[in-house]
Structure formats: C-alpha cells, structure tokens
Write a structure and sequence with these properties.
By secondary structure, the chain is α/β, with parallel strands linked by helices. It has eleven helices and 15 strands. Strand 1 and strand 2 form a beta hairpin. The N and C termini lie far apart (about 70 Å). Bound molecules: adenosine-5'-diphosphate and magnesium ion. The site of magnesium ion has 5 residues, from helix 3.
Length: about 375
C-alpha cells in the first residue's frame, strides 16, 4: 500500500473547521496555527493562543486533534500550545508602550477583598505563564506589599534605554512570586497617610506608572482605591485601559455601591471585563456545611442585570486570610487547595475576557 501524501493545505483546511469558541472565528483565519510539519503520517503544528491562561485550551486541542485526525493517512498528531497575548490597540499607550494590557481592579468600598483578589489573580496569571505586574494604586490603603511579603522592600533606580536611544532613570519594580510590583506604599512610611487629595493624587499615580521600568508585561493589574475618585479618572485619562474588574461581596449594600463604581468606568468608556464575587460563601471545615454569610448571589445578579460577564465566586476561607497576612498568598502557600483552583479559574475567565475585548477596537477615551 502506498503511503498517502498529506499536504499542508489539507491540514489548514481541516483546521479551518475549528473555531476559537471565544473569538468566534476559525483558528486559521485568526492566524493561530503555526509551524506545520508533515512527515508521512506524522503531523505536528503549533496553536498560538491569545493567552497562556486560556480556559478553552483543552477543548481547542481536542477539536484540532479530531479535525486533523479525520484526514486520511494521518497516524500521529503532535500539538504544541503556545500563547502570544494580543495587545490592546494602542498598546499600553505612550506612557508604558511595552505593557500589553492595563486592567483596573476596583470595588465600591474597602474591605471586600479587592487587594487579596488582585494579588492572587496576578500570581495565577503568572503561574499560567504570563508576564504580570501589579501597581498598587490604593492610596488610602496600600496592602499589596504586605500580601506579597514585600514590606521591607526599597525600590532601586535603574537606567532604562528608550526607543529613541535616550537613557532615563526609572524605578525598578520589586519582584515576588513571579509578579513585578510597585506600590504607593513603598513611597510612604508605614502607617503614614498620604497627605494628598483630589487631582494631585491622580497625577501622582500616573507619574508613578510612567516612572517604573515595567519591562514587557502581558498584564498589569492596578489595585485601585475603592470608589470612583480622582485616581480612577486620571488613570483612565492617561492610559488606555483594557478594562476594569469589579470585586464585590454578595451583600446588597456592597453590591449597589459596586454597581456605582462599575457604571463610572462605563461612563469613561472603559470596558467591564467582569464582576468577581468575593466572600461568596463559607464551607465549615468541621461539618462541610455551606453558609452564605453575606447573602447569596449578589454578584451574579448584578452581572446579569448589567449584562457584563460574571467571572466567578471566591469563598471565604480562613487559609486565604492567614496566607495573605504572612505574605504568601494561597496560590503560593497551598497551590493544590480548592481556593487556589478557584483563583485559577477566575484568572482564566478574566484572561479570556481580555482576549475577547482586545479583538474589538475601541477608540481612546476622550475626557
Ligand atoms: N476570600 C477570602 N477569604 C478570607 N478572607 C478574605 C478573603 N478575601 C479577603 N479576605 C480578608 O479580608 C480582609 C480585607 O481584604 P482586602 O483584600 O484587604 O480588601 P480590600 O482591598 O477590598 O480593602 C483581609 O483581612 C483579607 O485577608
Ligand atoms: Mg486593598
């Protein structure tokens, strides 16, 4: 029996039947298939995803395998999954051109777990293989240094060469758990409030972003001050945000405040990437019973009502609080825990929404 001669066109035609479930087009049209190699019945190719944290990885791979496997003569298929995070256009703006996505993490009020969620999501994205940074812009309560175990950190100055060849002094971010980090907390004495108000605060945060040598980042998460203050407005003014994530607890009151902050972003033309419900429920370690301490389902209802994505529920867990307090977020201290898996799921959904949003061109926000 003569071996069948398989061609690259056959492979591409087969893969044209495989859609990216999120982006709604096929993998070939989306230019996600690379480096096809054929040797008799052996076929190898690379699928370049739009984020390493893609939650559809397994499905896309299985669909590719099925499509190519149906070609006559194919006996063995090797698929390599890589990722190239697609930048928002324009990428990072003029201020931080090498940062592909800036994402604001916001809440209506303090204490809902915005910083805890930011830290864990950042680590989850980094663990998935993305280049991630956190800017702790919560001028009223910068807790990211504590959460990441960076309290004693002092920032160093380095010289950064610009695209035009000029060398300018910049701040080198601290690095922990695979995440680059700069906090307004690094710039003030612990326990000292920042004596700044209104527009000055916003300017300060913007300057801080631009003064940091972030290097290349796929995602920069900004831990925003709670509410809808000046920092939000001036951040949106200075940098093209890929979107905002709203963290809330299921409590009705918290939800209505959170909705206000969500609407403020929408008004500024910032896409809402989704709502995360934190402290959604508590599973008693002794009995296994579930308790809805702050009420039930507020985040999901809010997301449905406002027609924005719901990214998931994070339970209230003693381990999460303990891990945060000692600078080892639960993703690092107990990566196999349910809590860690939940954060990975939410991070995947967030990355998915960023990919979806960055396919749609949005004009720069004009203030
Ligand atoms: N899912 C959770 N389970 C247990 N404790 C949590 C959880 N999320 C946040 N916390 C705790 O709640 C407190 C407030 O969280 P924090 O992230 O500082 O909130 P915010 O940044 O919104 O003010 C912290 O003590 C934190 O450890
Ligand atoms: Mg905080």
């Amino acid at each position: 029996m003569n071996p069948v001669n398989i061609t690259e066109t056959q492979i591409l035609n087969a893969l044209r039947t495989v859609p990216d479930p999120d982006l709604g087009k096929d993998l070939v049209t989306l230019n996600m298939i690379k480096n096809i190699k054929i040797c008799e019945g052996n076929v190898a190719f690379v699928v370049e995803l739009t984020t390493p944290a893609c939650p559809m990885k397994a499905k896309i791979e299985a669909d590719c395998r099925a499509a190519v496997g149906a070609i006559e003569g194919v006996t063995h298929i090797k698929i390599e999954l890589t990722a190239n995070v697609v930048a928002r256009r324009p990428q990072g703006g003029k201020v931080i051109p090498k940062v592909k996505h800036v994402i604001a993490v916001a809440s209506g009020k303090g204490g809902v777990g915005k910083s805890t969620v930011t830290a864990n999501l950042a680590i989850a994205l980094a663990q998935a293989g993305a280049k991630v940074g956190i800017l702790d812009a919560d001028v009223y309560g910068p807790t990211i240094p504590m959460l990441l175990g960076l309290e004693d950190e002092t920032l160093e100055q380095i010289a950064e060469r610009q695209a035009d060849g000029n060398v300018i002094p910049k701040i080198a971010p601290a690095e922990r758990h695979g995440v680059s980090c700069v906090s307004v907390g690094f710039l003030v004495e612990p326990g000292q409030p920042l004596v700044m108000r209104g527009p000055m605060l916003g300017k300060f945060v913007n300057q801080l972003i631009g003064d940091v040598a972030w290097g290349e980042l796929d995602y920069l998460l900004v831990d925003m001050p709670p509410g809808t203050g000046d920092t939000t407005i001036s951040l949106v003014d200075a940098i093209p945000l890929s979107g905002a994530v709203i963290v809330m607890t299921p409590q009705d009151v918290a939800a209505s405040i959170a909705v206000k902050s969500l609407k403020a972003f929408q008004k500024l033309n910032v896409p809402i990437l989704g709502i995360i419900e934190n402290m959604a429920y508590f599973i008693a370690p002794d009995t296994g019973n579930t308790y809805y301490i702050f009420g039930r389902g507020g985040g999901m209802e809010a997301a449905e009502g406002l027609q924005v994505p719901f990214l998931g529920r994070i339970p209230l867990e003693i381990a999460t609080r303990e891990a945060s307090d000692c600078g080892e977020p639960v993703l690092v201290s107990d990566p196999e825990s349910i809590q860690a898996k939940t954060f990975h799921e939410v991070a995947g959904k967030l990355a998915q929404q960023i990919s979806i949003q960055s396919r749609k061109f949005r004009p720069l926000n004009v203030m």
